[in-house]
Amino acid sequence: xxxxxxxxxxxxxxxxxxxxxxxxxxxxxxxxxxxxxxxxxxxxxxxxxxxxxxxxxxxxxxxxxxxxxxxxxxxxxxxxxxxxxxxxxxxxxxxxxxxxxxxxxxxxxxxxxxxxxxxxxxxxxxxxxxxxxxxxxxxxxxxxxxxxxxxxxxxxxxxxxxxxxxxxxxxxxxxxxxxxxxxxxxxxxxxxxxxxxxxxxxxxxxxxxxxxxxxxxxxxxxxxxxxxxxxxxxxxxxxxxxxxxxxxxxxxxxxxxxxxxxxxxxxxxxxxxxxxxxxxxxxxxxxxxxxxxxxxxxxxxxxxxxxxxxxxxxxxxxxxxxxxxxxxxxxx
Length: 332
Ligand code: F6P
Description:
This protein has 2 domains: 6-193, Fructose-1,6-Bisphosphatase, subunit A, domain 1 (Fructose-1,6-Bisphosphatase, Chain A, domain 1, 2-Layer Sandwich), CATH 3.30.540; 204-331, D-Maltodextrin-Binding Protein, domain 2 (3-Layer(aba) Sandwich), CATH 3.40.190. Helix content is 30%, strand content 24%. It has 8 helices and 17 strands. Strands 4-3-5-6-7-8-9-10 form an 8-stranded mixed beta sheet, with helices on both faces. A 5-stranded mixed beta sheet has the order 12-11-13-17-15, with helices on both faces. Helix 2 (22-43) runs antiparallel to helix 3 and helix 5 (217-228) packs across helix 8. The longest helix is centred in the N-terminal third of the chain and has 22 residues, at 22-43. The radius of gyration is 19 Å and the shape is globular. Bound molecules: 6-O-phosphono-beta-D-fructofuranose. 6-O-phosphono-beta-D-fructofuranose is lined by residues 116-117, 119, 208, 244-246, 249, 262, 273, 278.
């Protein structure tokens, strides 16, 4: 069977769908190259001291692991000189990183979570990188925080990797979702699924049940009905999974259907996950795969961000299930 590499896929998108400009293609290839380096570092495990804490905290107040910092540096260094970007935002940096004046500045903005799920690193559970690409707003001459505060519907590309038993890259440029697997011998991402589609119905849910006492009534109602199984109103049994690495949980949801919830609750009043570099890219991918993503009330991609590192409730996955939970919120 003919192998299609990421480069070939992007060139084909450039030619046929017109969704990828040469600059965007270069940017996505550079991100993918940086992810290969991160995959290599994660693969070394304890030999590289990957679970070690460096003694600093990120803007969210979370302890930074050595590899959080390494992954951030790898992505910044790979992307700062190519001329495609004007600035970057990362979970690991308080403020936007403007492209230094010694390099040409481009038309795109990159937002990223360099190592999502890194609390799982020291127990050898999958982690990954999440990224989102926006265009600089029209007529924008100075890049500051404001330039990034665009709704997720304006993303031109989004993707994530999972550094697991194999390394995979899931990508959308707004014309469906493709999945690539890293051929570690050749060093290239090879297309392994051309058009990911989420089944509209599911019998699998993912939520951190230790937050149950804090849930809002609509979430409680939905999960109670799932737990009641075939004896309850849903008349079918549900299964539960929670990896606690969003990349792994969302990849499973994309692959075989399901619903992923990290809703806002009495403890996480604004939600737990970050809007701009976790929820938005995942919502874009999930919608492109035929699923849905809301914060319980509104479509995530329609939310107007107010701050770079703001948090949001997230409910995403199989369309009919997400619509059901969103309806329960409306009815409450
Ligand atoms: O945002 C980081 C993250 O690790 C996500 O990848 C994951 O979904 C979530 O936090 C896990 O949260 P908790 O530890 O509360 O289950």
